[in-house]
Specification:
Blueprint lengths: L1 H24 L4 H7 L1 H17 L29 H24 L2 H4 L15 H24 L5 H15 L8 H22 L4 H4 L2 H31 L4
Length: about 250
Amino acid sequence: MLYVALTFWLLVVILAASGVHRLLSGIVRPKVLNTILLPGTLVAQIGHVLGLLVTGATVNQTTLYDESGAPETTPNPKSRIPIIGPIVIGLLPMLSCATAIFFVARYLGASVIGGMRVDSVGPSLPTTVPALWQLLRDQITLVESWVSAIAASDPTDWRTWLFFYLLTCLTIRLAPFPGCLRGALGAILVLGIATAAATSLLDVADPRVRSGWAILSLCVASVLLLLLATLLTRGGVALARLLAGRE
């Protein structure tokens, strides 16, 4: 159940990050958005190129900015490893961003994370309808605790601002690149199933997974808050355009 829950929460993070990026792309020009997200874009691009090299695919047309200002990746990479190749190519950008989030949280955001509730995201999933509603309420509480932790942080410490900025960039860039969504989702599912099967047969569980829920809670709280803020912003912009007679 541990790895099933881990797979579920990773899917939540990836899909929510994709939603945030798509919504932002509708109200911010690609070049401006990509410039703001440059640290996360750079980390994700490094993971993408590494995935291409590991799987024997040809690296071409991979830049931080294309003609529209959006990051450009290799279209239809022809991996030499069938089936597994696209999964690796989709996995490594996410893994690169997740690793960067871990170090950013550890060295820049430890004091901020300490004030956040981390028990809303855990190794157990709801099995009844009331438990499902409770899970949804817990996520609202998680976002509330994250907002409270942000409000209680030290605004005079430059590390706090750098932490929030890098966390935002890296969290949004957890969204798979165009053409890599199926590979990314497949990577999460395959890893979850494989590790669950292995640990069930061997009756062991990686302690790093058990101790990593705080970082996963941080990712969930951050991406849900970004999704809420982006939805409100997108709705406000659409309403303003409607009232101004532009739509």
